Amino acid sequence: MSPKAVSFIARSGTGKTTLLEGVVAELKRRGYRVGVVKHDACRFDIDHPGKDSYRLTAAGADTMLISSPEKLAVVKKHEASPSLETLVATYFTDVDIVLAEGFKKGSLPKIELHRRELGNALMCRGGEPDPALVAVASDEPLDLDVPVLDLNDPVAVADFVERNFLK
After folding, report:
1. Distance CA 10, CA 120 (A)
2. Burial bucket for residue 114 (CB in 10 Å: 0-12, 13-18, 19+)
């Protein structure tokens, strides 16, 4: 069975990673097993020239896994980026919750971040409202049809995640 998952979405520079760091730490403090998926719209590479893993991938390996006593990493080639739902079901069966950074076009529940100084309209409440929006984390009061959380209070955001996805 796949764990519950929620996406934290926002424009670049809003503070997704900073908020997620605090939420992950707080959920871990409460005893939960937490997974994180980060969507990267650009091409990233964890394999670096000269390393054995890079050489094996360059030789044509479709999947290359490197394992140590403390962690493992998988490099898997694919034709198209898998959906968040597929990633969660495939790689996160051993956690209680998956927090995703990005995946704004996905269908899983979303918490959108809003920062006053960026002044942008909400992505999920623009032209075509996104029914997957469950809350907004903001540094200013907003009048919305979903709860507004304090962007600068990861404990309060973790409370929301726990209440809505872990209980």
Report:
1. 10
2. buried
Which tens digits make up the pLDDT trace of 66-82?
A: 888 998 888 788 888 88
Instruction: Answer whether 0.85 is exceeded by the pTM.
Output: yes
User: CA 145, CA 131: separation in Å to the nearest integer?
Assistant: 11
Domain boundaries in the chain?
Answer: 4-39+81-166, 45-79
Distance (Å, whole) CA 77 – CA 164: 34
Assign domain 4-39+81-166 to its CATH architecture: 3-Layer(aba) Sandwich (3.40)
Tens digits of residue pLDDT in 118-150: 887 898 987 788 999 999 999 999 999 999 999
Tokens of 130: 């996104």
